[in-house]
């Protein structure tokens, strides 16, 4: 009985121990709101005040500074504007709700003095006040600790506009927004809890509340808070010579910085200083120029960085960014490591990185990306998980790896997810003799299905093997499948293309593959090679041990020969042409290593070709082979010649160019070409010729700046000025003297007269004088004829 009672007691205690929030009456509120009544009510209770140089300034006040310049406060429609006129300020600027100070039991002066005396930070609190700082002339803020820091309560946006403002501090040259949002966080949580206590939540409800809190918090803060540096404004962070911490730019808790002007900071000439970037959101549309000291490491962490303008960042240690999006403009970074903790997206503009660029996920859509990792070792471009490329141009150069997909360190290696290249141009080069152009270590698949690519690796195969490397142009490892299709790929190294432990490597239609290596052009280990279409040009080049241009290899155990059925070459029936030695076909070799294992290989050769183990001891533990009568180059092709059909994707217009896509009717290969815009001619009336000057013919101009002879814009005028003196010239006309006064009726120029007749030498007047003379001759001749006729008649009458 006691056992039964004990059991019932245990069950009862267990039931009592279950969480009380397993059944909840909680109702999830509508979170699609931009304003919350409790927050608005709290904000309306705050009275803003502004302190400049230790003095409180009200609307309409003007403060003049001993070092020069002045500050004036105005307010229009709830927007406060602080105008600095050549102001030289030697203290901080604070923006503080009076109620916050009262709550703290402090005055603004007490806050400033307390923190200055403790050699930490002087700060201000900013409420929901849209504040504009207008800078006229060359202004500066110099403080004994930090030059400038804003701690917003909520929904405060700072806008800088005007000319030039320098922030300088003995401890830090500081531009910052930090969170002072505890009261608002409480209000937001109370609103989301909707009258329920957290202990009443189910786990699902609690997780939902926290998820919505993060989303709404980020949305509201990102929408209503931030620093904006307007176009034309230049903000300089210039620490004093002995500034211990150098430069800080801080805006945390989702607070964005919008840069349209210039933000600059330079530590090149200041020793023992650091550079700190602690930002949530940085949107650059202007110019960002940050140069850190190369002698001291720095801590840099940015949540989201989006670049549309010009950004130059030079730091010594690590630039750490959660998400990077290069949209347009120019991004130049020099750092030991550029670490993108989530996703790096390149969709336009030009990016130049000196150092290692590492991202969890790498997406290349467009633009021009160049990465160079200096030094005798290292990787240029590293995608830890996903590598996606659909356009753009990428050039990656380093000693060990131009491109590495997956994660690797001295302690462990972990495969990435996949590598997909569907377009663009990727050039990856390893300068080390045992380096690899592209090393793709993927758990899913690897595909190159478009674009034009070049991969270059080292030439020391056995040196690479000693360090578990490939020295290949492209090395594919562990992937479920590898696909090459509709792409042009040029690979070279000790092995041109190498695949290890990927069961299926396929070359499909439209592929144009060139693979040059010392050991082999294409080498597939523990996998099968399927040649289904396209063209493969493989060769063994250079000095060293040759095996075969195309080779598959599988390590087998004689005790279980069917466990690893790999190592085969599959040639599709559509491959009608195999060039090499006459009679080149698939050949097989099964090389016995010892009593328990062998190497099964296939290659392209003739019946006389052979691949055997080298019996000579080379002083190492690696297999060496002797290739006999194996052609050193082979070309496998489907004999297909592309026949493209044009498809207009974007019609060209007078306003801009278009885009055409060309698709091969046979294999589906595609490429795109930009189309020039359609010329639209605008008449430029010519100039008629006169008796004093040549004229010019009509011509036409297009908005693109070109000139044409015809309205259809078919005959271009390459050099307008030369054309006006040549084909476009109209010769000047002759002088006109209709009143026969010896001068031109148009320009008054004297005209030379004929010496005998006194007539004008010009064509028009000499023609008129010649007509009169002709009539006189005809009249005289007629008279002579009449007189002769009369004389003949009289003579005839007399004879009669």
Write up what this structure looks like:
By secondary structure, the chain is α/β, with parallel strands linked by helices. The strands form 8 sheets. The protein has a 38-stranded mixed sheet that branches. A hairpin with a 4-residue loop joins β26 (407-408) and β27. α5 crosses α6. The longest helix has 37 residues, at 763-799. The radius of gyration is 43 Å and the shape is flat. The model is unreliable at 1-24, 99-128, 149-154 and 754-772 (pLDDT under 50).
Summarize this entry quickly.
With 800 residues, the protein is an alpha/beta fold.
Mean pLDDT over the residues: 77
Q: Quickly count the helices.
A: 9
Morphology: flat
Strand content: 35-45%
Structural class: alpha/beta
Main sheet? 38 strands, mixed
Low-confidence segments, given as residue ranges, are 1-24, 99-128, 149-154, 754-772
Percent helix range? 10-25%
Terminal-residue CA separation: 193 Å
Q: What is the number of beta strands? A: 56
Radius of gyration: 43 Å
How is this fold's topology laid out?
Layout (H helix, E strand, L loop, with lengths): L1 H16 L19 H8 L3 E5 L2 E3 L4 E3 L5 E7 L2 E7 L2 E2 L3 E5 H7 L3 H10 L6 E3 L4 E13 L6 E3 L4 E13 L3 E5 L4 H12 L9 H22 L1 E4 L4 E4 L9 E13 L2 E5 L8 E10 L2 E5 L7 E9 L2 E5 L3 E9 L3 E43 L6 E11 L3 E6 L2 E5 L1 E2 L4 E2 L3 E4 L3 E6 L5 E6 L3 E4 L3 E5 L4 H6 L5 E6 L3 E4 L3 E13 L3 E4 L4 E14 L2 E4 L3 E6 L9 E8 L11 E3 L5 E3 L5 E8 L4 E9 L4 E4 L11 E4 L4 E5 L6 E7 L7 E7 L5 E6 L6 E3 L10 E2 L2 E3 L5 E2 L7 E2 L2 H6 L3 E2 L32 H37 L1
Parallel strand pairs: 5-9, 6-9, 8-10, 9-11, 11-13, 11-14, 12-15, 13-15, 14-16, 15-17, 16-18, 17-19, 18-20, 19-21, 20-22, 21-22, 22-23, 22-24, 23-25, 23-28, 24-29, 25-30, 28-31, 29-32, 30-33, 31-34, 32-35, 33-35, 34-36, 35-37, 36-38, 37-39, 37-40, 38-41
Antiparallel strand pairs: 1-2, 1-7, 3-4, 4-5, 26-27, 39-47, 40-44, 42-47, 43-44, 45-46, 48-49, 49-50, 51-53, 52-56, 53-54, 54-55
């Amino acid at each position: 009985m006691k056992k039964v009672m004990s059991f019932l007691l245990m069950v009862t205690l267990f039931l009592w121990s279950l969480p009380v929030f397993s059944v909840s009456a909680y109702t999830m509120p509508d979170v699609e709101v931009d304003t919350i009544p409790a927050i608005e009510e709290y904000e309306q209770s705050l009275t803003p005040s502004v302190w400049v140089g230790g003095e409180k300034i009200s609307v309409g006040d003007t403060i003049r500074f001993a070092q020069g310049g002045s500050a004036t406060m105005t307010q229009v429609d709830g927007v406060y504007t602080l105008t600095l006129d050549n102001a030289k300020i030697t203290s901080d600027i604070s923006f503080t709700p009076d109620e916050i100070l009262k709550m703290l039991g402090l005055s603004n002066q007490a806050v400033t003095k307390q923190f200055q005396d403790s050699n930490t930070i002087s700060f201000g609190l900013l409420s929901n006040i849209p504040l504009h700082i207008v800078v006229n002339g060359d202004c500066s803020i110099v403080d004994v600790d930090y030059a400038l820091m804003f701690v917003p309560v909520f929904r405060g946006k700072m806008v800088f506009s005007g000319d030039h403002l320098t922030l300088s501090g003995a401890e830090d040259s500081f531009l910052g927004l930090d969170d002072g949002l505890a009261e608002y966080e409480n209000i937001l949580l109370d609103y989301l809890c909707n009258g329920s206590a957290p202990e009443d939540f189910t786990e699902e409800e609690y997780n939902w509340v926290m998820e919505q809190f993060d989303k709404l918090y980020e949305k509201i803060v990102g929408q209503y808070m931030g620093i904006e540096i307007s176009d034309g404004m230049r903000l300089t962070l210039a620490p004093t010579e002995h500034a211990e911490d150098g430069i800080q730019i801080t805006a945390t808790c989702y607070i964005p910085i919008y840069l349209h002007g210039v933000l600059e900071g330079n530590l090149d000439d200041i020793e023992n200083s650091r550079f700190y970037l602690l930002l949530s959101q940085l949107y650059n549309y202007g110019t960002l120029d940050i140069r850190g000291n190369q002698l001291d490491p720095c801590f840099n962490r940015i949540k989201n960085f989006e670049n549309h303008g010009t950004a130059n960042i030079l730091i010594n240690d690590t630039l750490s960014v959660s998400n990077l999006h290069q949209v347009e403009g120019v991004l130049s970074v020099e750092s030991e490591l550029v670490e993108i903790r989530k996703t790096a997206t390149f969709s336009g503009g030009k990016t130049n990185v000196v150092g290692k660029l590492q991202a969890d996920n790498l997406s290349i859509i467009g633009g021009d990306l160049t990465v160079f990792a200096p030094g005798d070792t290292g990787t240029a471009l590293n995608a830890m998980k996903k590598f996606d490329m659909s356009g753009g141009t990428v050039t990656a150069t380093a000693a060990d790896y131009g491109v590495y997909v997956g994660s690797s360190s001295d302690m462990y290696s972990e495969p990435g997810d996949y590598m997909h290249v569907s377009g663009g141009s990727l050039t990856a080069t390893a300068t080390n003799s045992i380096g690899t152009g592209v090393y793709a270590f993927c758990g899913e698949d690897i595909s190159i299905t478009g674009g034009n690519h070049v991969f270059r690796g080292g030439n020391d195969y056995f040196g690479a093997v000693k360090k578990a490397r490939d020295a290949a142009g492209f090395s594919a490892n562990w992937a479920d499948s590898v696909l090459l299709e509709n792409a042009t790929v040029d690979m070279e190294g000790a092995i041109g293309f190498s695949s290890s432990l990927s069961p299926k490597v396929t070359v499909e239609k439209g592929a144009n593959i060139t693979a040059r290596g010392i050991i082999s052009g294409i080498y597939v280990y523990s996998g099968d090679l399927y040649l289904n279409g396209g063209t493969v040009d493989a060769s063994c080049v250079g000095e060293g041990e040759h095996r075969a241009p195309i080779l598959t290899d599988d390590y087998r155990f004689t005790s279980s020969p069917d466990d690893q059925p790999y190592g085969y070459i599959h040639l599709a029936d559509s491959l009608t042409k195999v060039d090499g030695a006459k009679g080149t076909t698939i050949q097989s070799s099964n090389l016995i290593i010892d009593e328990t294992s062998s190497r099964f290989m296939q290659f392209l050769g003739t019946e006389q070709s052979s691949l055997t183990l080298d019996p000579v001891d080379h002083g190492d533990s690696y297999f060496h082979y002797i290739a006999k009568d194996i052609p050193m180059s082979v070309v496998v092709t489907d004999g297909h010649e592309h026949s493209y059909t044009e498809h207009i994707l974007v019609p060209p217009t007078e306003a801009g160019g278009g885009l055409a896509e060309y698709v091969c009717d046979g294999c589906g290969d595609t490429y795109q070409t930009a189309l020039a815009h359609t010329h639209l001619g605008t008449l430029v009336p010519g100039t008629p010729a006169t008796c004093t000057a040549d004229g010019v013919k009509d011509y036409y101009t297009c908005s693109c700046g070109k000139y044409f002879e015809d309205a259809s814009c078919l005959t271009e005028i390459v050099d307008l000025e030369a054309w006006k003196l040549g084909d476009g010239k109209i010769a000047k006309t002759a002088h006109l003297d209709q009143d026969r006064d010896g001068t031109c009726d148009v320009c008054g120029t004297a005209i030379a007269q004929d010496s005998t007749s006194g007539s004008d030498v010009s064509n028009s007047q000499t023609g008129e004088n010649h007509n009169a003379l002709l009539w006189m001759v005809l009249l005289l001749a007629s008279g002579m004829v009449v007189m002769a006729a009369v004389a003949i008649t009289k003579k005839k009458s007399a004879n009669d």
